[in-house]
Amino acid sequence: MNALRRNVLKGAAGAGTVAVAVAAGLLKPTQALAGAPRSAFEAKNVGDALKNMGVSAPADSKDITIKAPDIAENGAVVPVEITSGIAGTTSIALIAEKNATPLVADFDLSDGTQGFVSTRIKMGQTALVRAVVTAGGKSYTAAKEVKVTIGGCGG
Amino acid sequence: MAEPMRIRATMAGDVADVKVLMNHPMETGQRKDAKTGQLVPAHYITQVTATINGKNVLTAGLSGGVSKNPYLGFKVKGPKAGDKVVVSWVDNTGDKNTAEATIG
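^ Those are the sequences you sent over. The predicted structure of the assembly is below.
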């Protein structure tokens, strides 16, 4: 494994490396793009981010649970856990509303994958952490406020 | 140069609980270097894919808003102990890394 990785990393041309990875079955061409386009990640406000994701007016849902601290002392590392109780959840997007680029991450889930993701995010300031869940072609949302003592974006 | 990635996968009933820890600086491109005052160039993971026994279970798009050395946890129903989990990431500079683990 180590020897293989070294070879892959040493591959002089980037394109060659990708070809090797594809050939080795490490990266399938069909997996090259996640649900949300990169433009959504570059959007500077929540409205644009949602628009670029193709989500309009998600409905509030009590079946989405966001587990995050009420007060985050360090905005550079805020643990966030999202659980969606909505049957047939196919994607979960995570948004920190007041970040310079609010869309933090977008997770596309396959059939067997549970409506659950856990990660750690950066937050520039106190803001709502919002989850946008897609299930059966419809969008649902929930939010939780996290107070940030020291911001974790920029410096 | 990409650093190793750590994966831990355990069965809890019929659900596999997968935890991944990636080594990556996750620079947003908005932070200034304290010494030079110059912006530190953006360098973050843009895409993570996970498969179990070759079947895609999770595709994630990430931004610089994810913390340094990203942690990712997810749960998959169906796999058995001994199945192989493979996680790969690609960053905005084209760098990439892959690691695998066996569900225990």
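Chain A touches chain B through 51 residues (CB under 8 Å). The helical segments of chain A are 2-10, 14-23, 38-42, 46-53.

Shout if you want it in another format.
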